[in-house]
Amino acid sequence: MRIYVAGKVSKESVFGTHHWRDEFVRTLAALSGLSLTNLDPTRLESNQNDPEMVYGADAYLISQADCLIVYLSDDISVGGSQEILIAKYFKKPVIGLAPRGGKFNGSRKELFGTVIENYQDPFVFASCDIICDDIEAAAEALKTGVTTKPKDIEMIGRLAKDYAEKHLKNSSYLREIGLH
Fold first, then answer.
1. Handedness of CA 42, 46, 52, 57 (dihedral sign)
2. Which band of pLDDT confidence, cut at 50, 70 and 90, is reported for residue 9?
3. From CA 126, how far away is CA 51, in angstroms rounded?
């Protein structure tokens, strides 16, 4: 199985190295019993001064993957969210590895004066096919099959339409600015 692991690239990340994916994939393979090929974007010979080439290289690798796993560390950058949407474009299943108690899964968060217990980041939970708390759960998801029909890019339009149909009429803000 070919997997693309999205997550922090900087060696100053929580992982302390650029190449943390190697050990991560070895651990996933051992836990799942699967033969895994790491489609590692940090191993490509690419000109980091050419943003479109870097983006295209990552998009190509994702298009070739059987699954994308995004490690949602608290210090993840914008690239991880882009890689999730690229995977959705290519109709690839996405496992979100969001540690429990981290900023994306199960934390305590204050928004607009309201404290939310067990907060789940809406952009993570809406776009990932499965959310795992740890690497063992991610390995199990790989082993048992992530999903038979992964979410694709069409989910964006569907969720926007659902919002409009169910909540538009109740929004004083949207009424005030003329969007309803």
1. negative
2. low
3. 27
> In one letter, which amino acid is 97?
L
**What count of other Cβ atoms lies within 10 Å of the Cβ of residue 128?**
27
Q: DSSP per residue over 112-159, as a string?
A: TTEEEEEEE-HHHHHH-SEEESSHHHHHHHHHH-S-SS---THHHHHH
What percent of the chain is predicted at pLDDT more than 70? Answer: 93
Tokens of 43: 């191993």
Count of residues in the chain: 180
- Compute φ and ψ for 32, nearest 5 degrees: -90, -20
Mean pLDDT, the chain, whole residue set = 89
DSSP tag of 178: T
Q: Considering only CA atoms, which of 12, 138, 2, 142 is closest in space to residue 60?
A: 2
Task: Look up residue 104 and give its amino acid.
Answer: F
Tens-digit pLDDT profile for residues 42-77: 888 767 788 899 899 999 999 999 999 999 988 888
pTM: 0.89
- Given the candidates 1.10.10.10, 3.40.50.300, 3.40.630.10, 3.40.50.450, the CATH classification of the domain at 2-147 is 3.40.50.450
Q: Where are the domains of the chain?
A: 2-147, 150-180
- Distance (Å, rounded) from C-alpha 114 to C-alpha 106? 15
User: In the structure encoding, which two tokens stand for residue 92, read together?
Assistant: 């690839």
**DSSP β-bridge partners for residue 95:** 69, 130
Q: Which residue has the tokens 């067990």?
A: 118
